[in-house]
């Protein structure tokens, strides 16, 4: 039931504060023991002797994996690679011992992801040494799916059924799963101080409330903005660092539900080719959050403006962000947490553009909720 919402997608975007609230209640309960940074359902063998992580996924799940890899490397200090499952299954990297393979799939039924995981398990078993034992984790919203029968460890994102073909609240749930893993690994490997871990946990606990205000604010702002951009033919999304995958996700959301051509780029790559596309007809959505690359993203936005592109900023309201033609404001938070907030305006902008064009937002043409064929 869509309740009073026009589409399931909009309802599911509005359910995100609740998704975050449930995640906090489950993984950061008030009675968490002081040596445990986060409550996860894993035993010691899951964490022991881990040297690297590889993540296999498709579509939006792969974008969550890219944020996850950033956290696992930069916050927890574990070398991590992300693969398109469809590529990995025919060209896996050489086997390396003490590797955890993570398959991320909302539905738990995506053929490429399941096949890539099966192939990885077989190769490890064939190798025969304990260091090559198939240590595999599935991150899913459907713990009753085929994925669960295939891998020894499961992390249920618990986002509830998602009806819209475009993933929204399950993307948030997947991201949160990676925040949990990054906290657990950072603490066990003493890669982060007690204070750094406590700060991230405090910000995660504040997330449900922040998401609530953001969804309300941007539902209105994006509806107004969508009227201006609904007839556009191409949109470029730019981000860097931990928000680069959010730029990819913004472009994917817009493509799949509005049929507008969109590309996501790491902002620093623009000058290596794509900048040739820019003119007054191409809006650029720039995700510019305070942190190591803030100034860089702003100067990349400035370069786009110099080519007459209309700039939409997903950024805090401050003098530095006055260059944007339109601002979708996001509060200043630590860089670690920022993708959990920047995802809201990019989802709502795509939603309102597609709704304004009168399209079937929940059932876009040529797409299915889960892709069970190769
Ligand atoms: O069920 P999965 O997470 O494995 O699905 C992967 C992709 O097919 C999926 O994320 C797709 O890209 C969505 N329609 C994105 O909104």
Automatic annotation (TrEMBL):
The keyword Transferase applies. It comes from the Bacteria. It is found in: Cytoplasm. Its EC number is 2.6.1.16. Coiled coil: none annotated. The active site is at residue 369. Keywords: Aminotransferase, Cytoplasm, Glutamine amidotransferase, Repeat, Transferase. Homodimer. This is Glutamine--fructose-6-phosphate aminotransferase [isomerizing]. The chain holds residues 261 to 634 of 634 of the full protein.
């Amino acid at each position: 039931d869509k309740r009073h919402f026009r589409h399931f997608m909009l309802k599911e975007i509005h359910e995100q504060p609740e998704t975050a609230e449930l995640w906090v209640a489950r993984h950061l309960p008030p009675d968490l023991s002081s040596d445990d940074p986060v409550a996860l359902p894993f035993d010691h063998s899951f964490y022991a002797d881990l040297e690297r992580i590889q993540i296999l996924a498709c579509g939006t799940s792969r974008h969550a994996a890219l944020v996850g890899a950033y956290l696992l490397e930069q916050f927890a200090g574990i070398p991590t690679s992300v693969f398109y499952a469809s590529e990995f299954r025919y060209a896996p990297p050489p086997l390396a011992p003490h590797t955890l393979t993570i398959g991320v799939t909302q539905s738990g039924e995506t053929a490429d992801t399941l096949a890539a995981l099966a192939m990885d398990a077989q190769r490890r078993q064939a190798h025969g040494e304990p260091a090559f034992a198939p240590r595999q984790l599935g991150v899913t919203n459907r713990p009753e799916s085929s994925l669960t029968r295939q891998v020894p460890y499961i992390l249920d994102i618990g986002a509830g059924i998602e009806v819209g073909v475009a993933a929204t609240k399950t993307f948030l749930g997947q991201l949160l799963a990676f925040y949990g893993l990054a906290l657990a690994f950072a603490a066990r490997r003493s890669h982060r101080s007690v204070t750094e871990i406590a700060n991230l946990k405090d910000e995660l606990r504040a997330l449900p409330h922040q998401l609530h205000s953001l969804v309300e604010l941007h539902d209105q702002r994006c509806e107004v903005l969508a009227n201006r951009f609904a007839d556009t033919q191409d949109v470029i999304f730019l981000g860097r660092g931990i928000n680069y995958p959010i730029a990819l996700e913004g472009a994917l959301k817009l493509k799949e539900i509005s049929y507008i051509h969109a590309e996501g780029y790491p902002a620093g790559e623009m000058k290596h080719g794509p900048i040739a596309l820019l003119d007054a007809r191409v809006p650029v959505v720039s995700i510019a959050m305070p942190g190591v690359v803030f100034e860089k993203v702003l100067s990349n936005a400035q370069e786009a403006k110099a080519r007459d592109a209309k700039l939409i900023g997903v950024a805090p309201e401050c003098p530095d962000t006055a260059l944007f033609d339109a601002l979708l404001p996001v509060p200043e938070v630590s860089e670690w947490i920022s993708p959990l907030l920047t995802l809201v305006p990019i989802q709502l902008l795509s939603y309102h553009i597609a709704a304004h064009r009168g399209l079937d937002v929940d059932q876009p043409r040529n797409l299915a909720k889960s892709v069970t064929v190769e």
